[in-house]
Amino acid sequence: MKKIVCVFIMLIVVLAGCSQSTALIKEADSRELNQKVKSFVDRNKSKNGIYLYSVAGEKEYFIVNYSTARQGEKEKFLSGISAEIREDVLTIQLDVQETSDPHDKRIRPLSIYKLNKHEEASKIQVKINGQETPIDIVGS
Question: Of 20, 6, 7, 16, whose CA–CA distance to 116 is shortest?
Fold first, then answer.
């Protein structure tokens, strides 16, 4: 009986640890963004890239923009996102794919995510398809 209880407790701990990823980053509703965040997004929406909106003491937003593609280039789109904290590093993992079809329903030019407070993280690391990538613009 004790073994069953121990296994059950270990299972709960493991599942609780797995849910951390969804708690760290959540898609934001663009209608609920304050004017400062909307202005930051508007200033940068004509350029593809990865952006971080960060003001001390306020909510932080992670923005992925794949809104432009040149003639003949494949269009990129975000197919998945996750986040985790290890030691003092918040790692945001992006799964990015490409398509030749400009009408592909998976294409979402602009994705905005709210980062939940990560006081235990002193650094943010971004990986696209497993490869570390710098944030293009950090602003406020």
Answer: 20
DSSP state at residue 138? E
**What does the pLDDT look like over 56-98, one tens digit per residue?**
777 889 999 987 777 778 888 899 999 999 888 999 999 999 8
Of residues 134, 40, 126, 137, the one with CA closest to residue 81: 126
Q: Which two tokens stand for residue 26?
A: 């959540």
Name the strand (E) or helix (H) holding 25. Answer: strand 25-27
CA 51/CA 12 separation, integer angstroms: 35
CB distance 27 to 112 below 8 Å? yes
DSSP code of 73? P
* Separation of alpha carbons 68 and 113, rounded Å: 20
Residues 30-42, mean pLDDT to the nearest whole number: 89
